[in-house]
Write a structure and sequence with these properties.
By secondary structure, this protein is mostly helical. It has nine helices and no strands. It has two domains: about 55 residues, Arc Repressor Mutant, subunit A; about 150 residues, Tetracycline Repressor, domain 2. Helix 2 packs across helix 3, helix 4 packs antiparallel against helix 5 and helix 4 runs parallel beside helix 7.
């Protein structure tokens, strides 16, 4: 039996609406108080409506996580369009950072998910898969820069990809804890300072 494209699109929209409601509850109340009932109340519906689209909280959290990463990869794709060389790497990392207050929302959901995933091996494995995808993306970018002789040939692309991810994670986590901790200019400076260490010729970078 052929699937109905309209019904599939409607299902996806409905699941996204539930996810958006879940994000709002997570950010406002914390994930420990985010229940299917609380999400239903946020939607102005019954718990049965929520469980129609998601069997349980784990399935809903996993879908919410997928949306966070989907948005991230879309932002990266848009940021690197028609960019080349070191600027492409720089913009790729910038795309993952919350320069604007609105960007903190995704980080809040992401960090909440990490806490929730502890002790839940299935969710931890999904977390690993998404980090692996991001790591591979950055690693390939570094390999391309080595091939183009724009960064030093002796660096380990995998190690440097991990370092860049750790840098982004540290900034994002810091901003969730204290929104005033990193001005956008400081975020850019820290990324540029790290990228500078990869170059054979070291240009000056103005402090923020």
């Amino acid at each position: 039996m052929l699937s109905n494209p309209y019904e599939n699109n409607q299902l996806q929209r409905s699941r996204l609406e539930v996810t958006e409601a879940a994000w709002r509850v997570i950010i406002r109340e914390g994930l420990d108080r985010t229940s299917m009932r609380a999400i239903a109340q946020e939607l102005g519906s019954t718990t049965g409506v929520v469980t129609h689209y998601f069997r349980d909280k784990d399935e809903l959290m996993l879908f919410a996580l997928e949306r966070v990463f989907e948005n991230l990869f879309q932002d990266i794709e848009a940021a690197v369009k028609e960019r080349h060389g070191l600027e492409r790497l720089e913009q790729m990392i910038f795309a993952a950072l919350p320069f604007e207050p609105s960007g903190i929302r995704g980080w809040q959901v992401w960090i909440a998910f990490l806490g929730y995933a502890i002790g839940r091996e299935t969710l931890i494995e999904e977390h690993r898969k998404r980090y692996d995808s991001l790591r591979q993306l950055i690693c390939q970018e570094l390999i391309d820069l080595q091939t183009a002789k724009l960064i030093r040939k002796e660096i380990d692309p995998l190690l440097e990809a991990n370092a860049l991810i750790a840098l982004v994670d540290g900034i994002g986590t810091g901003l969730v804890i204290n929104a005033e901790s990193f001005h956008p200019n400081q975020q850019r400076y820290l990324v540029q300072r790290h990228i500078k260490t990869l170059l054979a010729v070291l240009p000056a970078i103005a402090e923020p």
